[in-house]
UniProtKB/TrEMBL annotation, chains A, B:
Annotated stretches, region: Disordered: 130-158
Domain spans labelled Amidase: 27-424
The protein, known as: Asp-tRNA Asn/Glu-tRNA Gln amidotransferas-like protein subunit A
Organism expressing this protein natively: Paraphaeosphaeria sporulosa
Highest taxon, organism lineage: Eukaryota
Amino acid sequence: MEPFRLTASQAQAKFKDGSLTVEQYAQSLLDRVAARDSTVNAWAYLNPELVLERARELDAIPPEKRSPLHGVAIGVKDVILTKDMPTQYNSPIYVDDAPKIDAASIQTLRANGALIFGKTTTTEFAATVVGPSHKGPKTTNAHNSKRTPGGSSSGSGAAVGDLQVPIGLGTQTVGSTIRPGSFNGIYAMKPTWNSISREGQKLYSLILDTLGLYARSVEDLKLLLDAFQLVDDEPEEPFTLKGAKLALLTLPTPEWPEPGPGTAAALKKGTELLRAHGAEVEEITLPDEFRSMYKYHLQVLSGDGRVAFLADYYGAKDKMHGSLIDHVENKDKHTRQDQLKAFDELAAMRPKIDAFASKYSAIVAPSVLDEAPVGLENTGSAAFCGPWTAMHTPVVNIPGFKGENGLPIGLSVVAGRYRDQYLLRVCTEIGKVFEGEGGWSR
Amino acid sequence: MEPFRLTASQAQAKFKDGSLTVEQYAQSLLDRVAARDSTVNAWAYLNPELVLERARELDAIPPEKRSPLHGVAIGVKDVILTKDMPTQYNSPIYVDDAPKIDAASIQTLRANGALIFGKTTTTEFAATVVGPSHKGPKTTNAHNSKRTPGGSSSGSGAAVGDLQVPIGLGTQTVGSTIRPGSFNGIYAMKPTWNSISREGQKLYSLILDTLGLYARSVEDLKLLLDAFQLVDDEPEEPFTLKGAKLALLTLPTPEWPEPGPGTAAALKKGTELLRAHGAEVEEITLPDEFRSMYKYHLQVLSGDGRVAFLADYYGAKDKMHGSLIDHVENKDKHTRQDQLKAFDELAAMRPKIDAFASKYSAIVAPSVLDEAPVGLENTGSAAFCGPWTAMHTPVVNIPGFKGENGLPIGLSVVAGRYRDQYLLRVCTEIGKVFEGEGGWSR
């Protein structure tokens, strides 16, 4: 198998047994990028010489001194600061801007031996949903160049889906990590809010923005959580599907849109598979008290965007997308009282969602409306991703299903806050079933 | 009067009528620093040539093109990124570190014509309370070199108090802005949480950290709030003390320490003065439901510090203060459930505090236990500052009183969230009374 096809954990096994060097691995990834980049366009910055130089530095470390993420190649969404590469936010204000500073997440990954590979495309400031004609990325879906990879973490989703890199970093403020995960047929995780430092990651909303993780196996996600020292309260007990009690949330509340046929079929098939493997699956809807969640979410975004984009607005309003200007100018005339009410109501819902989730082994829910839509001009709806961002709970997109046009569709699996490691154990088992029998494969 | 004695607004009036240039003003401030720096030690970085060069650039702008903060000189706490000066956090890890990037607050201030003057001292990462023998700043109180200036915004508090600069930026996670404000006899404001972007400001706690503002007049604070586009919902109606209904909060809950004699006397005298000027003052305590606020505050700090300092811990644990290592290693063995409970309970208290505050024109409360203590090894108790940080409400320290040793003591004035401009109108009137009749003057 060509090295670029390996997951990070598989590549690490070969580094350990001496059958692959980090440099050979990096070269294979670079070859894959070279073959595919003119189609997929996943990279905002990639310097092959820098990658190979770092790879050789890692190879020079004696085996006994290697760190847990030794040689793990990571594509970094271009809203996260990297001291050896520009950070451009897909904004004309920041073309070639390259401050010598690493985000906290990058510091941690480097300290653990990771190979920071390059910067992946994003929509402007990770805060718009528009395509190339409005400065959006030219990135295409990993499995069909006529379709969107999703956004705003477009490049990380597409690059990991297209085997150009095993791990990607994204961010999520509504659905910017989970949506590209489903569209590109990969695992995507939004951990518990503030469980990984967001320092050095472009700010949109303090209470919503979360670092997102992409991989092609649950094992790889666990590598990352361990490096970030995400530890649950509960001990690491094995999870089995047999006897598990899962909640199937087809429609969180009547405020949400109806899933399309691909997602509806995935939910149906997923349920059948889980039951066939011994799990109890109870179809649920969220109680009425959560009905206004999405409305409050958008209200908080609006108030927070007003603050977050003021500095760039002062400096270069003419170079910003209209939706960001609208935030700063408070075009919708939201009051501060509206903003506080939304902020406080979401806060009050969080412990209630935890209590609700604790009645089940996990919640299974749609990740997206359907397979990736045709065209690059719109990155798709994030409606189903929003609840877990607003509620701060960890969520993982598991791939395995396909839509009417053969594109991948994933489902979201959710647990209460700070049960991130537990959630990965659940996803290991559900992932085997969905990937093995769901009907979609790369 | 020597220019260095002017408030920012007074200096701006002279720029406008042509009786002072920004360069002359900057030179006067630099002369003041030169005369006092060996005693006060307020600066972590100050480059006179850079200051004068920027001042000349500002003078070169034609009067009709000048911005609202034209020539306003600002000392910046050295945990806030500045692209033309190092940012060192008082940490040996970051000695001479100078990434080319401005924090969002600095971008906004520069875009408004401010003169970013230099970097002011801080305790390590704005997260310790220790003095020079433990890497704490050598900064002394502006009014007595044997006493602490408070922390963690030690340098900004001392520099503004000592007339070395008219405006300072601080940060507050418990009491790091308000405490140095009281100790150095100046106005200090912690605006509503997240009403000014914290991007590019060292992270300790996402839900607590707030940019802080120092000045020697309320008029100067208003200049800053306007530049940051802090707008209340309510119209700008004049506030008068006559007929105002103020709450006097001598002891928030029994969990708080007793004020010392200086603060007790200030509260007594402040009350008499307010009543003499026609205000009704009602002595109150917070209802029992707020009793655990401080405990929850410390719990959130602990959990958030665990995340915030992980990256530096990986890179250079041996160069960090023990209290920060304890955070990362979770020495107190806090559980995630403890952390969530504290986070959620504080969130639930916030709308209740707003409702409580709305029954009064404002709340008057102690800022600190007493005048600045002798010695530099401890920056003093932040107990009285904590509630307003945890509750996200705006708070202003108003100087005017003095302790048993003649050092300044201020009182805090508080309103509900997003009533920042209203609070300044209240403080204009209370400030006249406290500064005029409180008994302390520079």
